[in-house]
Design brief:
This protein is mainly beta. The chain has one domain: Beta Barrel (Hypothetical Protein Pfu-838710-001), CATH 2.40.320. 12% of the residues lie in helices and 43% in strands. The chain has three helices and nine strands. It has a nine-stranded antiparallel sheet. Strand 8 and strand 9 form a beta hairpin. The longest helix is centred in the middle third of the chain and has 8 residues.
Length: 147
């Protein structure tokens, strides 16, 4: 189960150089249901996500590089490229800050995953977070992939 909130970000008030960064590219084989392939640094996976906004089922399966490259030819829509910075936050939470590249630049989204629904509902975001887009399907990566 994935429980997360998502926010638009316009300005990052600090330097990201000290934050771990993952280079991600992902494409969608299907958006209903969501079936995604992803390269995350040098790991590869296939993911199924159920319908939903803040709470969704999510299943990840490892892929080989060869399987990923084969499936990459079959994606529907654009390949999403982004840098994901992992920023520690209070209460043992992590902000996943996605800075999109290519056609989706200069979009920046911050996601925070929670251990339970109550934590997600009572979360107070930092001041530099912008609009809460958790309940807007417009900012799901599967939607962003549709050119």
């Amino acid at each position: 189960m994935e429980i997360e909130r998502k926010y638009l970000v316009k300005n990052i008030p600090f330097d990201l150089k000290g934050c771990p960064c993952r280079i991600i590219e992902q494409g969608y084989l299907s958006t209903a249901p969501v079936i995604r392939i992803r390269k995350d640094n040098e790991s590869f996976e296939l993911t199924y996500k159920s319908k939903g906004m803040m709470i969704r089922e999510e299943y990840n399966l490892p892929l080989t590089k060869e399987a990923y490259e084969h499936l990459l030819l079959k994606i529907d829509g654009r390949l999403i490229r982004k840098r994901r910075y992992m920023i520690p936050f209070k209460e043992k939470l992590t902000i996943e800050l996605d800075i999109f590249e290519g056609e989706l630049a200069p979009l920046i989204l911050a996601e925070v995953e929670f251990p339970d629904e109550e934590s997600a509902h009572t979360f107070t975001p930092p001041d530099w977070f912008g609009e809460d887009v958790t309940f807007s399907g417009r900012y799901h990566n599967s939607r962003l992939s549709q050119a």
